[in-house]
Write a structure and sequence with these properties.
Helix content is 46%, strand content 15%. The protein is an alpha/beta fold and 131 residues long. A five-stranded parallel sheet has the order 1-5-4-2-3.
Length: 131
Protein backbone atom coordinates (compact mmCIF):
# COMPACT_ATOMS: atom_id res chain seq x y z
CA UNK A 1 0.00 0.00 0.00
CA UNK A 2 3.01 2.32 -0.03
CA UNK A 3 2.73 3.02 -3.74
CA UNK A 4 1.00 5.82 -5.62
CA UNK A 5 -2.34 5.06 -3.97
CA UNK A 6 -0.84 5.73 -0.51
CA UNK A 7 0.66 9.04 -1.69
CA UNK A 8 -2.71 10.01 -3.17
CA UNK A 9 -4.47 9.36 0.15
CA UNK A 10 -1.90 11.42 2.04
CA UNK A 11 -2.40 14.27 -0.44
CA UNK A 12 -6.18 14.17 -0.01
CA UNK A 13 -5.82 14.26 3.78
CA UNK A 14 -3.47 17.25 3.63
CA UNK A 15 -5.76 19.23 1.32
CA UNK A 16 -8.83 18.38 3.39
CA UNK A 17 -7.20 19.35 6.67
CA UNK A 18 -5.99 22.67 5.21
CA UNK A 19 -9.47 23.40 3.87
CA UNK A 20 -11.07 22.70 7.25
CA UNK A 21 -8.54 24.94 9.00
CA UNK A 22 -9.25 27.78 6.56
CA UNK A 23 -13.00 27.51 7.11
CA UNK A 24 -12.54 27.96 10.86
CA UNK A 25 -11.35 31.53 10.35
CA UNK A 26 -13.81 33.74 8.54
CA UNK A 27 -12.26 36.91 7.13
CA UNK A 28 -13.00 39.22 4.30
CA UNK A 29 -13.13 42.61 2.74
CA UNK A 30 -16.67 43.93 2.34
CA UNK A 31 -18.06 46.68 0.16
CA UNK A 32 -19.91 49.47 1.94
CA UNK A 33 -23.22 47.84 0.99
CA UNK A 34 -22.20 44.38 2.27
CA UNK A 35 -20.66 45.87 5.43
CA UNK A 36 -23.88 47.79 6.14
CA UNK A 37 -26.05 44.72 5.48
CA UNK A 38 -23.87 42.62 7.78
CA UNK A 39 -23.95 45.02 10.72
CA UNK A 40 -27.70 45.53 10.32
CA UNK A 41 -28.45 41.81 10.23
CA UNK A 42 -26.28 40.87 13.22
CA UNK A 43 -27.06 41.91 16.77
CA UNK A 44 -23.92 40.54 18.41
CA UNK A 45 -21.05 42.15 16.61
CA UNK A 46 -18.32 44.66 17.25
CA UNK A 47 -17.93 47.61 14.91
CA UNK A 48 -14.38 48.81 15.40
CA UNK A 49 -13.09 52.18 14.24
CA UNK A 50 -9.27 52.19 14.30
CA UNK A 51 -8.79 55.87 13.45
CA UNK A 52 -7.68 58.64 15.78
CA UNK A 53 -10.05 60.21 18.33
CA UNK A 54 -10.03 63.42 16.27
CA UNK A 55 -11.14 61.55 13.14
CA UNK A 56 -13.76 59.65 15.13
CA UNK A 57 -15.26 62.89 16.47
CA UNK A 58 -15.64 64.18 12.90
CA UNK A 59 -18.02 61.31 12.14
CA UNK A 60 -18.23 57.54 12.49
CA UNK A 61 -20.46 54.56 11.75
CA UNK A 62 -23.31 54.23 14.27
CA UNK A 63 -22.51 52.01 17.28
CA UNK A 64 -18.79 51.92 16.46
CA UNK A 65 -16.25 51.67 19.24
CA UNK A 66 -12.96 53.49 18.91
CA UNK A 67 -9.61 51.82 19.47
CA UNK A 68 -6.88 53.84 17.79
CA UNK A 69 -4.51 51.54 15.88
CA UNK A 70 -1.68 53.97 16.65
CA UNK A 71 -2.14 53.69 20.43
CA UNK A 72 0.69 51.86 22.18
CA UNK A 73 -1.84 49.68 23.99
CA UNK A 74 -3.88 48.73 20.90
CA UNK A 75 -3.29 45.01 21.49
CA UNK A 76 -4.16 45.31 25.18
CA UNK A 77 -7.42 47.04 24.30
CA UNK A 78 -8.50 44.53 21.65
CA UNK A 79 -7.76 41.62 24.00
CA UNK A 80 -10.73 42.83 26.10
CA UNK A 81 -13.11 42.09 23.20
CA UNK A 82 -14.86 38.71 22.98
CA UNK A 83 -12.99 36.83 20.25
CA UNK A 84 -16.06 34.77 19.37
CA UNK A 85 -18.03 37.80 18.16
CA UNK A 86 -17.83 38.96 14.55
CA UNK A 87 -15.73 42.11 14.33
CA UNK A 88 -16.21 44.71 11.59
CA UNK A 89 -13.19 46.99 11.22
CA UNK A 90 -12.80 50.27 9.39
CA UNK A 91 -10.61 53.35 9.11
CA UNK A 92 -10.56 56.28 6.68
CA UNK A 93 -9.28 54.53 3.54
CA UNK A 94 -8.68 50.87 4.40
CA UNK A 95 -4.95 50.90 5.13
CA UNK A 96 -5.10 50.96 8.93
CA UNK A 97 -8.07 48.59 9.03
CA UNK A 98 -6.09 46.03 6.98
CA UNK A 99 -3.25 46.27 9.51
CA UNK A 100 -5.72 46.02 12.39
CA UNK A 101 -7.37 42.96 10.81
CA UNK A 102 -4.02 41.21 10.64
CA UNK A 103 -3.40 41.95 14.32
CA UNK A 104 -6.91 40.78 15.25
CA UNK A 105 -6.44 37.50 13.40
CA UNK A 106 -3.04 37.03 15.04
CA UNK A 107 -4.72 37.59 18.42
CA UNK A 108 -7.23 34.81 17.74
CA UNK A 109 -10.31 36.59 16.40
CA UNK A 110 -12.18 34.19 14.12
CA UNK A 111 -14.55 36.47 12.19
CA UNK A 112 -12.86 39.67 11.00
CA UNK A 113 -14.36 41.83 8.25
CA UNK A 114 -12.83 44.98 6.79
CA UNK A 115 -14.72 47.84 5.14
CA UNK A 116 -13.29 48.14 1.64
CA UNK A 117 -11.72 51.58 1.13
CA UNK A 118 -12.86 52.54 4.61
CA UNK A 119 -15.07 55.44 5.51
CA UNK A 120 -14.35 57.00 2.12
CA UNK A 121 -16.55 54.39 0.41
CA UNK A 122 -19.07 54.46 3.26
CA UNK A 123 -19.59 58.18 2.73
CA UNK A 124 -19.63 57.81 -1.07
CA UNK A 125 -22.42 55.25 -0.65
CA UNK A 126 -24.41 57.77 1.43
CA UNK A 127 -24.43 55.53 4.50
CA UNK A 128 -25.24 56.93 7.93
CA UNK A 129 -22.55 58.81 9.83
CA UNK A 130 -22.95 60.01 13.42
CA UNK A 131 -21.03 62.60 15.44
Amino acid sequence: MRGPYFAFLIGVLVVTSCKEKKEQSDTGVLSAEAFDDAILSTSNEIILDVRTPEEFSEGHIPNAMLINLRDEDFKTQIRKIDKQLPIYVYCASGVRSDKAATILKDEGFKQVYVLENGLNDWRASNKEIVR
